[in-house]
Fold these 2 entries.
Entry 1:
Amino acid sequence: MNERDTEHMLAELKEKENYDATDDFKSADLILINTCSVREKPVAKLFSELGIFNKKKKDGAKIGVCGCTASHLGKEIIKRAPYVSFVLGARNISKITEVLHKPKAVEIDINYDESEFAFKDFRSSKYKAYINISIGCDKSCTFCIVPKTRGDEISIPMNLIIDEANRAVSLGAKEIFLLGQNVNNYGRRFSGNHEKVNFTRLLQELSKIDGLKRIRFTSPHPFHMDDEFIEEFASNPKICKSMHMPLQSGSTKVLKDMKRGYTKEWFLNRVQKLREMVPDVSISTDIIVAFPGESDADFEDTIDVMNQANFEQVFSFKYSPRPQTEAEFFSDVIDSDTASVRLTSIQELHIKQLDKNNASKIDNTYTVYFEELYNDGFISGRSDNNTVIKVKGSEELLGEFKDVKIISIGRTVLTGEIIN
Ligand code: 5AD
Ligand code: SF4
């Protein structure tokens, strides 16, 4: 989501102010930091990086802070780092060229202006197009700051999404990547009087686009994974067979304290249905350890779900208390040593499962969409089920689909050879 926001700001700056991107911040006229506030660490990192940029930047260069931490800290950022020229919240990024000319501007209101939905067609990759389908989040997970920084959940009208996808495909993208905090809750609320459609219908309409070969999306919410959604996922050949299912915890009690809206059993039942209907599916997840009140038995439930679900990818985090969330005030805080031990257990189990899953892929054949050229004579892409695969090859493979047989296994990238 932040990458897409960055593409949009860059496009606005290019079009209206003649800016271009540079890799060398010391020569930049403008340094933009697009921030995350989901955990405490990136927020602390913001202030240390700001100090470095301020010391090393070119004379007269401006520094702007954008995104979720901008929304959440607002003018506090300028108080702590007075050399910052402007602060632009996650819901206000379309104002980038306005704040550029206003000294010490702070734009962090959550607004519902539909003009905020129309993102520029400029993209950092020619091959894949990120497309927002909704903004904000209506859930109230007790650990999460996102509803405060990105506001209420609003679905972007289907006709705008389809137009954007058509334009992306006509510019060469064969894959689109739909973005939203809860994509499978799409259609819950529009800002105007738009046709009520759900996510399944949106997927069906998008798949009709000629020249579009692959559709990915993130993040779906386990609570909204009804049969209709899973059946569309299974049967629509354009939908890539990789599903993100953020578990957060395997304990029904902790899930309740987190207000996630599902139980351990519901989650496992959805995994089972997915694995039955789509044998080649790859499932990724997010897990938070040491949420307040998480007992050893609760933690064992998370390990149990990992053992049963056999996730292809696990992103795991220690719980980080966030301001303006309910859990900030929960008692029974877990000490940091216990949190570290639990995080290590999750990561070790994940690596074990990953190595085993990868080993079973040797000699398999996958259709790879090539999108990234390495500088060592290799080129990489992803299989339908999101495995990163590289082969020896050069740029004429970019944007092409090829059948690739796996010849050796690495942890994050597999190596193959083109057979077709
Ligand atoms: N502490 C730790 N992890 C968090 N996440 C969200 N909020 C927190 C928090 N307060 C994680 C969740 C979410 C992912 C994007 O970040 O696992 O799915
Ligand atoms: Fe945060 Fe929960 Fe919304 Fe995801 S669904 S963004 S975890 S509040």
Note: The pocket of iron/sulfur cluster (ligand 2) is lined by residues 137, 139, 141, 144, 146-147, 181-182, 221 (CB under 6 Å).
Entry 2:
Amino acid sequence: MQGGLFGDETATENCIFCKIIAGKAPGHILYRNDEVMCFLDIAPVSAGHTLIIPLKHHDNIFTLNDAEATALAIQARRLAPIVKRVTGADGLGVHQLNGRAAGQTVFHYHTHLIPCFHGKPMQIHGRKPASQDSLADMAERLRTALK
Ligand code: AMP
Ligand code: ZN
């Protein structure tokens, strides 16, 4: 079954996020260690929309172990203030969807960090891909702020 706009995510070998981890698909990567990777969402709700994923493929939260869950939470806490500051956001949504019924569209576990602004309704999914130039520019600003 087609997993969404961006490919079939039902099998690990076809998982777009595993391909980004392996360097076989492009991604605007902010940070990576032995456990997790952080990169920009290709279709951001707002500029700076970031995804945090485990390097090991898990479809969703239900199979994560404690160490993986901890590593993901630590990165969310580390990146949250930086994404908020660099984007000038008023707030930051931290969201995570599990299963089609919950609205999940890419079946490799990920945490969304979404910059939010007063007067702009909260969304979890963007409507269209951002330009490569704008993603590259934002990634550079966030990488610099993370140093
Ligand atoms: P979810 O609906 O929670 O599964 O969110 C999946 C997210 O992955 C969406 O916000 C998509 O825009 C994003 N996405 C899909 N393909 C890519 C990709 N190749 N690079 C970066 N983000 C992606
Ligand atoms: Zn995967």
Note: Helices lie at 16-21, 66-87, 132-146.
